[in-house]
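Lecture notes, part 5. Sequence design as translation. It can be helpful to think of inverse folding as translation between two languages: the language of shapes and the language of residues. The source text, in structure tokens, appears below.
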């Protein structure tokens, strides 16, 4: 069956295919010079000193959280409180559980889909060590207000920016505003290396820690002078298998780095087209009183287009989904909905701040469709025409 409005499509051209062939011909598939070049160019593009590429956005989040446990001053420890929005994808939360952190779920704003800022302010306590801001569906958070809430407290601000590559807030690239920020380059995201993720930071110690734990926790990929061991020996034989931190193997392939270099050349054009699509989407749907559509903060990079059925409406999400599917329009829940509803939560050390009223509304009455790097005028018109049939 042909999908008339797909959720995601390939953004690769001949350049990416040629880059892959060059790697194939070289015979060097493990993480190497292409990954290193991509990391350097990615960091520069997003105004950061350092970038660490991994095999997924999920692993990027894992490295971000893990690194904070191994820094020399004020490391995180099990039981420390981390505030998160209740609506996000599972990979925001899983590293927090795996490292034994106390997760405090806070409600979101039903229009922006990011933090409900008054709830966030109330949720911050003397125990809070981290605020993890998730820039949802391309939309950056209100970082002016979040930093005002943090004020002089020793609270770390982190960004899960996996859905919002290219978003901006006050002329800063989303993902570069917190101490660390993560990105995904999965197939359906703003750029695609098929599988891949990146973590950026300006903190050299955290960068070096991530280099180590990305590769088994060994010293091999650390520079000679580094913030983990101080200085590596000149004995390459011993340094080959010298393990210093509890690590993983979440390295990317050279193919992914080579593709990333080509995608990064195109990213500004991709994001600009997504914004043009969003302008047309807003033109058609902003006055539709049946739905709440996402309110932009700063400059969104518009991962997709969300709908929330207005409360008090007689519309049924089930019937809407059936109609969209019948008309070959790909549709999904708004990310993971209210994550705290999931059975997996029994494995978490967690707390729910007040209630998650808006998150529950989104979970019950929300859905979204895709956005792409090319002109979607005809697809958005078709979506509008289809949704007009809903009674």
């Amino acid at each position: 069956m042909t999908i008339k409005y797909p959720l995601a499509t390939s953004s690769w051209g001949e350049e990416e295919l040629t880059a892959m062939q060059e790697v194939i011909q070289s015979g060097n598939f493990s993480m190497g010079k292409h990954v290193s070049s991509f990391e350097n160019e990615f960091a520069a593009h997003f105004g950061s000193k350092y970038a660490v590429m991994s095999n997924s956005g999920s692993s990027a989040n894992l490295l971000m959280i893990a690194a904070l446990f191994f820094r020399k001053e004020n490391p995180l420890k099990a039981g420390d409180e981390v505030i998160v929005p209740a609506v996000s994808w599972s990979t925001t939360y899983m590293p927090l559980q795996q490292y034994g952190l106390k997760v405090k779920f806070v409600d979101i704003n039903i229009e922006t889909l990011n933090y409900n800022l008054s709830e966030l302010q109330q949720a911050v306590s003397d125990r809070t060590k981290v605020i993890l801001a998730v820039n949802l569906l391309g939309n950056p958070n209100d970082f002016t207000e979040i930093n005002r809430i943090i004020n002089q407290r020793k609270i770390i601000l982190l960004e899960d920016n996996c859905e919002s590559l290219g978003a901006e807030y006050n002329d800063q690239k989303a993902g570069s505003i917190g101490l660390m920020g993560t990105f995904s380059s999965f197939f359906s995201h703003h750029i695609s290396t098929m599988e891949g993720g990146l973590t950026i930071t300006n903190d050299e110690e955290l960068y070096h820690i991530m280099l180590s734990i990305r590769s088994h926790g060994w010293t091999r990929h650390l520079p000679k002078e580094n913030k983990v061991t101080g200085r590596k020996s000149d004995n390459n034989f011993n340094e080959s298998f010298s393990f210093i931190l509890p690590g993983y193997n979440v390295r990317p392939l050279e193919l992914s780095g080579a593709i990333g270099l080509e995608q990064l050349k195109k990213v500004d054009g991709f994001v600009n087209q997504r914004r043009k699509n969003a302008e047309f989407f807003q033109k058609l749907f902003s006055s539709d009183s049946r739905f709440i559509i996402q309110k932009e903060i700063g400059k969104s990079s518009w991962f997709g287009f969300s709908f929330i059925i207005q409360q008090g409406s007689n519309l049924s999400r089930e019937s809407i989904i059936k109609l969209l599917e019948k008309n070959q329009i790909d549709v999904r829940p708004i990310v993971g909905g209210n994550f705290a509803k999931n059975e997996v939560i029994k494995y978490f050390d967690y707390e729910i701040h007040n209630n998650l009223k808006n998150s529950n509304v989104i979970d019950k009455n929300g859905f979204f469709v895709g956005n792409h790097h090319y002109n979607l005028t005809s697809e958005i018109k078709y979506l509008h025409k289809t949704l007009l049939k809903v009674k």
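The translated text above is only one of many valid answers, since several sequences can fold into similar shapes. The chain is about 35% helix and 15% strand.
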